[in-house]
TrEMBL record:
CDD domains: PBP1_ChvE. One of its GO terms (cellular component) is outer membrane-bounded periplasmic space. GO terms for molecular function: carbohydrate binding. This is ABC transporter substrate-binding protein. The keyword Signal applies. Residues 1-26 form the signal peptide.
Length: 366
Protein backbone atom coordinates (compact mmCIF):
# COMPACT_ATOMS: atom_id res chain seq x y z
CA UNK A 1 0.00 0.00 0.00
CA UNK A 2 2.79 2.35 1.03
CA UNK A 3 4.51 1.61 -2.27
CA UNK A 4 1.38 2.48 -4.23
CA UNK A 5 0.95 5.76 -2.36
CA UNK A 6 4.55 6.71 -2.98
CA UNK A 7 4.23 5.79 -6.65
CA UNK A 8 1.12 7.93 -6.95
CA UNK A 9 2.91 10.73 -5.12
CA UNK A 10 5.96 10.66 -7.32
CA UNK A 11 3.78 10.46 -10.43
CA UNK A 12 1.90 13.47 -9.13
CA UNK A 13 5.17 15.30 -8.56
CA UNK A 14 6.36 14.56 -12.09
CA UNK A 15 2.98 15.67 -13.47
CA UNK A 16 3.16 18.85 -11.42
CA UNK A 17 6.68 19.50 -12.67
CA UNK A 18 5.52 18.91 -16.22
CA UNK A 19 2.25 20.73 -16.34
CA UNK A 20 1.83 22.64 -13.14
CA UNK A 21 4.20 25.53 -13.54
CA UNK A 22 3.48 28.86 -15.16
CA UNK A 23 5.78 31.88 -15.00
CA UNK A 24 9.24 31.56 -16.55
CA UNK A 25 11.15 28.53 -17.77
CA UNK A 26 14.81 27.83 -17.09
CA UNK A 27 15.89 30.17 -19.89
CA UNK A 28 13.91 32.91 -18.23
CA UNK A 29 11.43 32.93 -21.12
CA UNK A 30 7.78 33.39 -20.24
CA UNK A 31 5.90 30.14 -20.09
CA UNK A 32 2.31 29.06 -20.44
CA UNK A 33 0.17 28.43 -17.39
CA UNK A 34 0.05 24.70 -16.93
CA UNK A 35 2.15 23.53 -19.84
CA UNK A 36 5.78 22.91 -20.66
CA UNK A 37 5.47 24.90 -23.86
CA UNK A 38 9.14 25.76 -24.37
CA UNK A 39 9.78 22.98 -26.85
CA UNK A 40 6.47 23.02 -28.64
CA UNK A 41 6.61 24.42 -32.15
CA UNK A 42 3.41 25.95 -33.49
CA UNK A 43 3.26 26.44 -37.25
CA UNK A 44 1.20 29.44 -38.28
CA UNK A 45 0.42 29.51 -41.99
CA UNK A 46 -1.25 32.69 -43.25
CA UNK A 47 -2.57 33.16 -46.81
CA UNK A 48 -0.93 36.43 -47.83
CA UNK A 49 0.71 39.62 -46.70
CA UNK A 50 -1.08 41.59 -49.38
CA UNK A 51 -4.08 42.35 -47.21
CA UNK A 52 -3.77 44.28 -43.96
CA UNK A 53 -5.73 41.86 -41.82
CA UNK A 54 -3.54 38.79 -42.37
CA UNK A 55 -0.45 40.74 -41.31
CA UNK A 56 -2.26 41.65 -38.10
CA UNK A 57 -3.52 38.10 -37.62
CA UNK A 58 -0.01 36.68 -38.10
CA UNK A 59 1.64 39.24 -35.84
CA UNK A 60 -0.98 38.80 -33.10
CA UNK A 61 -0.59 35.03 -33.17
CA UNK A 62 3.19 35.22 -33.05
CA UNK A 63 3.32 37.67 -30.14
CA UNK A 64 0.71 35.84 -28.05
CA UNK A 65 2.15 32.38 -28.65
CA UNK A 66 5.70 33.50 -27.89
CA UNK A 67 4.50 35.23 -24.72
CA UNK A 68 3.27 31.83 -23.60
CA UNK A 69 6.60 30.21 -24.37
CA UNK A 70 5.80 28.49 -27.65
CA UNK A 71 8.18 28.48 -30.57
CA UNK A 72 6.46 29.94 -33.59
CA UNK A 73 7.04 29.26 -37.27
CA UNK A 74 5.03 32.00 -39.01
CA UNK A 75 4.77 31.93 -42.80
CA UNK A 76 2.79 33.90 -45.39
CA UNK A 77 2.03 32.23 -48.72
CA UNK A 78 1.34 35.18 -51.03
CA UNK A 79 -1.95 33.70 -52.18
CA UNK A 80 -0.19 30.78 -53.90
CA UNK A 81 -1.56 27.39 -52.95
CA UNK A 82 1.67 25.58 -53.82
CA UNK A 83 3.69 27.91 -51.60
CA UNK A 84 1.29 27.31 -48.72
CA UNK A 85 1.50 23.52 -49.16
CA UNK A 86 5.32 23.69 -49.17
CA UNK A 87 5.37 25.90 -46.11
CA UNK A 88 3.10 23.50 -44.23
CA UNK A 89 5.25 20.55 -45.30
CA UNK A 90 8.27 22.35 -43.86
CA UNK A 91 6.48 22.95 -40.59
CA UNK A 92 5.71 19.23 -40.35
CA UNK A 93 9.35 18.37 -41.07
CA UNK A 94 10.54 20.83 -38.42
CA UNK A 95 8.43 18.99 -35.84
CA UNK A 96 5.49 21.34 -35.30
CA UNK A 97 2.96 19.90 -32.84
CA UNK A 98 0.09 22.19 -33.76
CA UNK A 99 -0.68 23.89 -37.08
CA UNK A 100 -2.80 27.01 -37.37
CA UNK A 101 -3.80 27.48 -41.01
CA UNK A 102 -5.54 30.39 -42.72
CA UNK A 103 -6.03 28.62 -46.04
CA UNK A 104 -5.87 30.14 -49.51
CA UNK A 105 -7.92 27.40 -51.14
CA UNK A 106 -9.72 25.47 -48.40
CA UNK A 107 -10.07 22.47 -50.72
CA UNK A 108 -6.39 22.14 -51.62
CA UNK A 109 -4.83 21.03 -48.34
CA UNK A 110 -6.24 17.52 -47.77
CA UNK A 111 -3.10 15.75 -48.89
CA UNK A 112 -0.54 17.76 -46.89
CA UNK A 113 -2.77 17.62 -43.83
CA UNK A 114 -2.97 13.84 -44.12
CA UNK A 115 0.81 13.94 -43.52
CA UNK A 116 0.25 16.14 -40.49
CA UNK A 117 -2.38 13.77 -39.14
CA UNK A 118 -0.04 10.80 -39.59
CA UNK A 119 2.46 12.62 -37.36
CA UNK A 120 -0.19 13.24 -34.71
CA UNK A 121 -0.21 16.99 -35.38
CA UNK A 122 -3.39 18.86 -34.48
CA UNK A 123 -4.70 21.34 -36.99
CA UNK A 124 -6.76 24.45 -36.33
CA UNK A 125 -8.41 26.12 -39.33
CA UNK A 126 -7.96 29.85 -38.85
CA UNK A 127 -10.79 32.09 -40.10
CA UNK A 128 -11.38 29.96 -43.24
CA UNK A 129 -12.56 26.38 -43.08
CA UNK A 130 -10.37 23.62 -44.53
CA UNK A 131 -12.51 21.34 -46.68
CA UNK A 132 -12.88 17.64 -47.38
CA UNK A 133 -10.62 16.17 -44.72
CA UNK A 134 -10.82 14.90 -41.16
CA UNK A 135 -7.23 16.03 -40.61
CA UNK A 136 -8.52 19.44 -39.49
CA UNK A 137 -9.47 19.24 -35.81
CA UNK A 138 -10.92 22.65 -34.93
CA UNK A 139 -12.10 25.83 -36.58
CA UNK A 140 -11.98 29.35 -35.14
CA UNK A 141 -13.64 32.18 -37.03
CA UNK A 142 -16.19 34.94 -36.89
CA UNK A 143 -19.81 34.14 -37.52
CA UNK A 144 -19.50 34.46 -41.28
CA UNK A 145 -23.23 34.21 -42.06
CA UNK A 146 -23.81 37.02 -39.64
CA UNK A 147 -21.20 39.16 -41.50
CA UNK A 148 -23.37 38.92 -44.61
CA UNK A 149 -26.57 39.57 -42.65
CA UNK A 150 -25.07 42.75 -41.16
CA UNK A 151 -24.18 43.99 -44.66
CA UNK A 152 -27.58 43.10 -46.08
CA UNK A 153 -29.44 44.70 -43.18
CA UNK A 154 -27.42 47.87 -43.56
CA UNK A 155 -28.55 48.21 -47.18
CA UNK A 156 -32.12 47.26 -46.20
CA UNK A 157 -32.21 49.98 -43.58
CA UNK A 158 -30.50 52.75 -45.54
CA UNK A 159 -32.79 52.26 -48.55
CA UNK A 160 -35.91 51.91 -46.40
CA UNK A 161 -36.75 48.57 -47.99
CA UNK A 162 -38.79 47.37 -45.02
CA UNK A 163 -41.09 50.36 -45.57
CA UNK A 164 -41.62 49.36 -49.16
CA UNK A 165 -39.33 51.96 -50.78
CA UNK A 166 -37.92 51.35 -54.25
CA UNK A 167 -37.25 50.26 -56.87
CA UNK A 168 -33.50 50.73 -56.38
CA UNK A 169 -30.63 49.51 -58.51
CA UNK A 170 -28.08 47.30 -56.78
CA UNK A 171 -25.06 45.25 -57.82
CA UNK A 172 -23.31 42.46 -55.94
CA UNK A 173 -19.55 41.85 -55.61
CA UNK A 174 -18.46 38.96 -53.46
CA UNK A 175 -15.26 36.90 -52.92
CA UNK A 176 -13.62 33.90 -54.59
CA UNK A 177 -15.25 30.52 -55.08
CA UNK A 178 -12.43 28.69 -53.26
CA UNK A 179 -12.96 30.56 -49.97
CA UNK A 180 -15.65 28.70 -48.05
CA UNK A 181 -16.42 31.85 -46.04
CA UNK A 182 -17.92 33.37 -49.18
CA UNK A 183 -20.74 30.82 -49.11
CA UNK A 184 -21.71 32.35 -45.78
CA UNK A 185 -20.96 36.03 -46.52
CA UNK A 186 -22.96 35.85 -49.75
CA UNK A 187 -25.61 33.59 -48.23
CA UNK A 188 -26.12 35.83 -45.20
CA UNK A 189 -26.43 38.99 -47.30
CA UNK A 190 -28.77 37.35 -49.82
CA UNK A 191 -30.96 36.01 -47.01
CA UNK A 192 -31.87 39.68 -46.46
CA UNK A 193 -31.70 41.04 -50.03
CA UNK A 194 -33.14 38.22 -52.16
CA UNK A 195 -36.79 38.81 -51.14
CA UNK A 196 -36.48 42.44 -52.30
CA UNK A 197 -34.96 41.30 -55.60
CA UNK A 198 -37.84 38.87 -55.98
CA UNK A 199 -40.50 41.52 -55.33
CA UNK A 200 -38.83 44.15 -57.53
CA UNK A 201 -37.81 46.65 -54.82
CA UNK A 202 -34.22 45.86 -55.76
CA UNK A 203 -33.16 45.54 -59.38
CA UNK A 204 -29.84 44.02 -60.44
CA UNK A 205 -29.48 45.51 -63.93
CA UNK A 206 -26.45 43.40 -64.84
CA UNK A 207 -28.50 40.28 -64.12
CA UNK A 208 -25.49 38.93 -62.20
CA UNK A 209 -26.77 37.57 -58.92
CA UNK A 210 -25.29 34.12 -58.35
CA UNK A 211 -22.18 33.59 -56.22
CA UNK A 212 -20.36 32.42 -59.34
CA UNK A 213 -21.35 35.50 -61.37
CA UNK A 214 -20.47 37.88 -58.55
CA UNK A 215 -17.15 36.28 -57.57
CA UNK A 216 -13.89 38.18 -57.19
CA UNK A 217 -10.91 35.85 -57.71
CA UNK A 218 -8.45 36.06 -54.78
CA UNK A 219 -10.44 38.94 -53.28
CA UNK A 220 -8.35 41.04 -55.62
CA UNK A 221 -9.07 44.76 -55.68
CA UNK A 222 -8.16 45.13 -59.37
CA UNK A 223 -10.41 42.21 -60.35
CA UNK A 224 -13.30 43.82 -58.49
CA UNK A 225 -12.56 47.12 -60.21
CA UNK A 226 -12.51 45.74 -63.75
CA UNK A 227 -15.66 43.68 -63.23
CA UNK A 228 -17.44 46.80 -61.98
CA UNK A 229 -16.05 48.82 -64.93
CA UNK A 230 -17.77 46.39 -67.28
CA UNK A 231 -21.02 46.41 -65.32
CA UNK A 232 -21.13 50.21 -65.27
CA UNK A 233 -20.36 50.59 -68.97
CA UNK A 234 -23.08 48.13 -69.87
CA UNK A 235 -25.78 49.32 -67.45
CA UNK A 236 -25.22 52.58 -65.65
CA UNK A 237 -24.07 55.24 -68.09
CA UNK A 238 -27.39 56.99 -67.61
CA UNK A 239 -29.16 54.97 -64.92
CA UNK A 240 -28.48 55.53 -61.24
CA UNK A 241 -26.82 52.95 -59.04
CA UNK A 242 -28.08 52.98 -55.46
CA UNK A 243 -26.09 50.29 -53.70
CA UNK A 244 -23.31 47.76 -54.18
CA UNK A 245 -23.09 44.86 -51.81
CA UNK A 246 -19.33 44.35 -51.41
CA UNK A 247 -18.39 41.32 -49.34
CA UNK A 248 -15.13 42.77 -48.02
CA UNK A 249 -12.96 45.86 -47.94
CA UNK A 250 -10.58 45.00 -50.78
CA UNK A 251 -13.53 44.38 -53.10
CA UNK A 252 -15.10 47.59 -51.86
CA UNK A 253 -11.95 49.60 -52.67
CA UNK A 254 -11.91 48.18 -56.21
CA UNK A 255 -15.56 49.07 -56.69
CA UNK A 256 -14.92 52.57 -55.33
CA UNK A 257 -12.10 53.16 -57.85
CA UNK A 258 -14.32 52.01 -60.66
CA UNK A 259 -17.19 54.28 -59.60
CA UNK A 260 -14.94 57.28 -59.15
CA UNK A 261 -13.42 56.80 -62.59
CA UNK A 262 -16.84 57.42 -64.12
CA UNK A 263 -17.68 60.42 -61.98
CA UNK A 264 -19.43 58.97 -58.94
CA UNK A 265 -18.66 60.68 -55.65
CA UNK A 266 -19.81 64.19 -56.59
CA UNK A 267 -22.83 66.19 -55.46
CA UNK A 268 -24.69 65.34 -58.70
CA UNK A 269 -23.69 61.71 -58.65
CA UNK A 270 -23.19 60.59 -55.02
CA UNK A 271 -21.55 57.28 -54.21
CA UNK A 272 -24.04 54.44 -53.84
CA UNK A 273 -24.35 52.68 -50.51
CA UNK A 274 -21.25 50.51 -50.30
CA UNK A 275 -20.56 47.81 -47.76
CA UNK A 276 -17.28 46.17 -46.73
CA UNK A 277 -15.67 43.89 -44.19
CA UNK A 278 -12.52 44.00 -42.03
CA UNK A 279 -12.42 47.71 -41.16
CA UNK A 280 -9.05 48.06 -42.85
CA UNK A 281 -7.35 51.43 -42.38
CA UNK A 282 -7.84 52.51 -46.01
CA UNK A 283 -11.53 51.65 -45.74
CA UNK A 284 -12.11 53.40 -42.43
CA UNK A 285 -10.58 56.46 -44.09
CA UNK A 286 -13.00 55.94 -47.00
CA UNK A 287 -15.87 55.75 -44.51
CA UNK A 288 -14.77 59.01 -42.91
CA UNK A 289 -14.45 60.58 -46.39
CA UNK A 290 -17.95 59.38 -47.32
CA UNK A 291 -16.81 57.05 -50.13
CA UNK A 292 -17.75 53.82 -48.32
CA UNK A 293 -20.83 53.50 -46.12
CA UNK A 294 -19.85 50.81 -43.65
CA UNK A 295 -17.61 47.88 -42.90
CA UNK A 296 -17.84 44.85 -40.64
CA UNK A 297 -15.33 44.87 -37.81
CA UNK A 298 -13.82 41.52 -36.90
CA UNK A 299 -11.41 42.09 -34.04
CA UNK A 300 -8.37 40.04 -35.09
CA UNK A 301 -7.02 40.38 -31.54
CA UNK A 302 -9.96 38.39 -30.22
CA UNK A 303 -9.60 35.71 -32.88
CA UNK A 304 -5.92 35.16 -32.26
CA UNK A 305 -6.52 35.12 -28.50
CA UNK A 306 -9.11 32.39 -28.98
CA UNK A 307 -6.79 30.36 -31.18
CA UNK A 308 -3.95 30.68 -28.68
CA UNK A 309 -6.34 29.33 -26.02
CA UNK A 310 -7.08 26.40 -28.35
CA UNK A 311 -3.37 25.73 -28.83
CA UNK A 312 -2.88 25.81 -25.06
CA UNK A 313 -5.70 23.33 -24.51
CA UNK A 314 -4.26 21.00 -27.13
CA UNK A 315 -0.81 21.24 -25.53
CA UNK A 316 -2.40 20.36 -22.20
CA UNK A 317 -4.27 17.48 -23.76
CA UNK A 318 -7.57 19.14 -23.03
CA UNK A 319 -10.47 19.67 -25.41
CA UNK A 320 -10.44 23.25 -26.72
CA UNK A 321 -13.57 25.24 -26.00
CA UNK A 322 -15.99 25.42 -28.96
CA UNK A 323 -19.41 27.04 -29.27
CA UNK A 324 -20.71 25.59 -32.55
CA UNK A 325 -20.88 21.96 -33.54
CA UNK A 326 -23.53 22.25 -36.26
CA UNK A 327 -22.68 24.84 -38.88
CA UNK A 328 -19.36 24.02 -40.47
CA UNK A 329 -19.56 20.76 -42.36
CA UNK A 330 -16.39 20.59 -44.41
CA UNK A 331 -17.65 17.83 -46.68
CA UNK A 332 -16.15 15.12 -44.46
CA UNK A 333 -17.50 16.04 -41.04
CA UNK A 334 -18.84 18.93 -38.96
CA UNK A 335 -15.73 20.63 -37.63
CA UNK A 336 -16.04 21.78 -33.99
CA UNK A 337 -15.89 25.55 -34.19
CA UNK A 338 -15.59 28.66 -32.11
CA UNK A 339 -17.47 31.59 -33.65
CA UNK A 340 -16.80 35.16 -32.61
CA UNK A 341 -19.24 38.00 -33.11
CA UNK A 342 -18.69 40.50 -35.94
CA UNK A 343 -19.87 44.09 -35.50
CA UNK A 344 -20.97 46.74 -37.98
CA UNK A 345 -18.91 49.91 -38.16
CA UNK A 346 -19.72 53.18 -39.89
CA UNK A 347 -19.14 56.89 -39.39
CA UNK A 348 -21.30 56.89 -36.26
CA UNK A 349 -19.34 54.39 -34.18
CA UNK A 350 -15.85 53.96 -35.63
CA UNK A 351 -14.24 56.12 -32.96
CA UNK A 352 -15.50 54.11 -30.01
CA UNK A 353 -15.13 50.74 -31.74
CA UNK A 354 -11.74 51.21 -33.35
CA UNK A 355 -9.89 54.03 -31.59
CA UNK A 356 -11.11 53.82 -27.99
CA UNK A 357 -10.57 50.06 -28.04
CA UNK A 358 -6.94 50.64 -29.07
CA UNK A 359 -7.32 48.79 -32.38
CA UNK A 360 -6.07 51.84 -34.28
CA UNK A 361 -4.59 55.12 -33.16
CA UNK A 362 -6.20 58.35 -34.30
CA UNK A 363 -3.03 59.09 -36.31
CA UNK A 364 -3.34 55.88 -38.31
CA UNK A 365 -6.71 57.02 -39.57
CA UNK A 366 -5.55 60.52 -40.65
C1 LIG B 1 -11.86 36.70 -44.52
C2 LIG B 1 -12.09 38.18 -44.67
C3 LIG B 1 -11.12 38.76 -45.68
C4 LIG B 1 -11.07 37.92 -46.94
C5 LIG B 1 -9.95 38.36 -47.85
C6 LIG B 1 -11.94 36.03 -45.85
O1 LIG B 1 -11.82 34.67 -45.76
O2 LIG B 1 -12.81 36.15 -43.62
O3 LIG B 1 -11.93 38.80 -43.43
O4 LIG B 1 -11.50 40.04 -46.03
O5 LIG B 1 -10.91 36.57 -46.65
O6 LIG B 1 -8.71 38.11 -47.32
Amino acid sequence: MKKIISLVLSATLVMTALIGCGGANSDGEPQAEGVESKDIIVGVSMPTKSLQRWNQDGANMEVSLKAKGYKVDLQFAENEVETQVNQIENMITKGAKVLVVGSIDGGALSSVLEDAKAEGIKVIAYDRLIMNTDAVNYYATFDNFSVGVIQGEYIEEKLGLKDGAGPFNIEIATGPLDDNNVVYFYGGAMSILQPYIDNGQLVVKSGQTTREQCATPNWDEKEAQSRMDNIITANYTSDKLDAVLCSNDSVSLGVQSSLKSVGFGTADKPMPILTGQDANIANVKAIVAGDQSMSVFKDTRALSEKVVEMVDSIANQKEPEVNDTETYNNGTYVVPSYLLKPEFVDGSNYKSLLIDSGYYTEDQLK
